[in-house]
Amino acid sequence: MEEKGTISIHTENIFPIIKKFLYSDNEIFLRELVSNAVDAVQKIKRLAALGQYSGELGNPLVEVALDKEKKTITISDNGLGMTAEEIKKYINQVAFSGASEFVEKFKDAKDANEIIGKFGLGFYSAFMVSDLVEIQTLSYQEGAEPARWVCDGSTTFEITEGSRTTRGTDIILHVNAESEEFLETFKLEGILDKYGKFLPVPIKFGTKTEQEPDGEDEEGKPKSKSVETDNIINTTNPIWTKAPADLSDEDYLAFYKQLYPFSEDPLFWIHLNVDYPFNLTGVLYFPKLKNDFEMQRNKIRLFSRQVFITDEVKDIVPEFLMLLHGVIDSPDIPLNVSRSFLQADSNVKKINSYITKKVADKLQELYNKDRKAYEEKWTDIGLFVKYGMVSEEKFNDKAKDFALLTNTKNEHYTLEEYHDKVKDFQLDKNGQVVYIYSNDPAKQDSFIQSANKLEYDVLLMNSPIDNHFVQHLEQKLEKTALKRVDSSVASKLIDKDDQVESVLTEDQSKKVKEVFEKAISKPGYTVEIVGLNPEELPVTITMDEFMRRMKDMAQMGGGMGFYGNMPDSYKVAINGNHKLVAKILSAGDEDTQAKLARQAVDLALLAQGMLTGAELTAFVSRSVELI
Ligand SMILES: Nc1ncnc2c1ncn2[C@@H]1O[C@H](COP(=O)(O)OP(=O)(O)OP(=O)(O)O)[C@@H](O)[C@H]1O
Q1: 72: Cβ–Cβ under 8 A, 6 or more apart, which residues?
Q2: Gap from CA of 91 to ligand 1 centroid (Å)
Q3: CB under 6 Å to ligand 1: residues?
């Protein structure tokens, strides 16, 4: 048997193109060839199961071997092998069936996956790192002859009689000069570990030395001896391929540790398992969140039949669940998946909503099962839930039953419970319920205390997503407004009919206003005399809720640029009924009046952490003087 021929393709030489465009991703050659080998092994098993092959199966094995001297990497399998005819069909023709289209399109391709995926070039990725590729193969079919195929990366190939004596295939790569890095053991080990750690067929890479018990010595102590065993780099049946009923919590936790050795234990997990309308298995973990969110993104690994594909799962997993960890395996996603494929694929969209639903169901189940335990985890879970509610309408519909609001006393309420709690007492004169919240309880402590004195409840909204969540609640909840606790003096937070009047006459008010305006003398501060309870603070500095939100949005790039450029403006509310005001009015000289006013303003600033630098120093010396 000897045959020479031309690979059917309309371009002079396609391999330099492949090499050039795929260079950055060239390590995937190993993934492609090893998965072909794994497929071949699984195919023979299937044939045997179907009764179409009755020969010896042997132990299924794929082996990757390195020969530094000969500069070769060999990928061998004991799969079904190929006849010379099959090589012609599958290697020479099929791979290039779309070749002319390929030549047309390669120039726009952004990554190697896109090219390989579209044109079925899996096997040809071998040329990314080789000058010469050789196939030695023997088919399982009765009477099959061993065949050898060689191609040097030009468009000509050669098929001759092969030398393999057992069923299966060797793919021998003669590594080219630019790719010698792949002739390092650690390099191949790294790639195998990345892509092949969970492949369903044992992958051997060299051998390792292990200690084995070897009887006892003269003193009766156990002896051991060193033995060389196959170095199998993978776990062939990872937990996502098993039934949840066969797994314990320890199994899930151990797998998590295997994936993320340095992470704390996760909060809980979800085992995914669907076979209609798409195939998907996987385990998703809710991690304990750290502040560094960016570091925690892209931790979900995407597999296709246990072959690692990518950890960029942006389009498969809803954005709000990008902080989850774990694995997803779907044969419906091709090995050579590309971003544009994912975005366009309808299965991917279905997978996305399936995951959203599963996560919502799991949270509802946890909530129903043990509310207390759920509340304890709320700080971590809350972030996902709120993010999900803000970004996905469908999730919001489900989550509104198990989302919690937490107040400054660390009590948790569902949305409905909270509404019932405050609906009567925190009702304004227009029939709107006002939810009061703090985004920085330490800084806003004096405001929180004042609100609590009036028996108003204050919600905690201090996680990174809460800014959006506040707006979301306002949109979703009927006749409800949310106000930050420092957006006005406590008694004005909720506009009720029973407002306290100021005892000052018009002239007195004017005078007090003048004194304070002079004492502040800073741009952006507007003084206002209000009638408050005499026990409330004499001076309160607030920023209007609307203005502040617009500024916050501008800062986050929310398109409110105009507000972002406005100087900060504050309201200085002077409690006309406080005795300090009476004291200022009765003080003889202007100097004392100014000092008292300045002192009261500084105290208000101090309470809010707004007094710093030279102003703080001046305040301290003025205080000493006043003592
Ligand atoms: N080790 C092997 N043993 C038996 N057949 C093989 C082996 N490697 C490749 N083949 C055959 O060659 C064909 C072409 O392989 P190639 O990797 O180019 O494409 P594919 O595996 O069909 O698709 P893709 O890799 O793009 O997902 C395979 O479908 C298979 O029939």
Answers
A1: 66, 172, 173, 174, 175
A2: 7
A3: 32, 36-37, 40, 77, 79-80, 82, 90-91, 94-95, 120, 122-123, 169, 335-336
CATH number of 506-626: 1.20.120.790
pLDDT at 11: 45
Residue 280 belongs to what H/E stretch?
A: strand 280-286
Segment 34-40 mean pLDDT: 93
pTM of the model: 0.73
Q: Which one of 3.30.230.80, 2.60.40.10, 3.40.50.1820, 3.40.50.2300 gives the CATH number of domain 239-371?
A: 3.30.230.80
Q: Which amino acid is at 564?
A: G
What's the pLDDT band for 97 if we cut at 50, 70, 90? very low
Domain ranges of the chain: 2-205, 239-371, 403-493, 506-626
CB atoms near residue 139 (< 10 Å): 23
What are the start-end ranges of the E strands in 443-561? 458-460, 480-484, 525-530, 539-542
pLDDT at 594 over 90: no
ipTM: 0.96
More confident: 72 or 348? 72
**What is the mean predicted confidence (pLDDT) over 349-359?**
85
Q: Is 100 annotated as a binding residue?
A: no
Q: Torsion angle, CA of 248/250/251/257, rounded to 10 degrees?
A: 160
Cα 73 → chain centroid: 36
- Whether the per-residue pLDDT at 337 is higher than 60: the answer is no
Q: What pLDDT is stored for residue 216 in this prediction?
A: 85
Round to whole Å and give the CA distance between 584 and 594: 8
Pocket test for ligand 1, best of 75, 89, 123 (most atoms within 8 A of CB): 123
**Would you state the pLDDT for residue 10?**
45
Burial 249-268 (b: 16+ CB within 10 A, else e): eeebeebbeebbeebeebbb
Which CATH superfamily groups domain 2-205? Answer: Histidine kinase-like ATPase, C-terminal domain (3.30.565.10)
Q: Say how far apart CA 164 and CA 142 lie, in whole Å.
A: 15
% pLDDT > 70, the chain: 86
Contacts of residue 179, defined as CB under 8 A and 6 or more positions apart, other chains included, come to 26, 128, 129, 130
> Alpha-carbon distance 25 to 152, whole Å?
21
pLDDT band at 98 (very low <50, low <70, confident <90, very high): very low
- Give yes or no for a contact between 267 and 288, defined as CB atoms under 8 angstroms apart: yes
Give the residue, out of 15, 90, 119, 304, with the most ligand 1 atoms within 8 A of its beta carbon, to mutate for a pocket test: 90
Distance from C-alpha of 197 to C-alpha of 238, rounded to nearest angstrom: 9
Judge whether 565 is annotated as a binding position.
Answer: no
Mean pLDDT of 397-425: 95
pLDDT at residue 561, rounded to an integer: 59
- Looking at domain 403-493, which CATH architecture does it have? 3-Layer(aba) Sandwich (3.40)
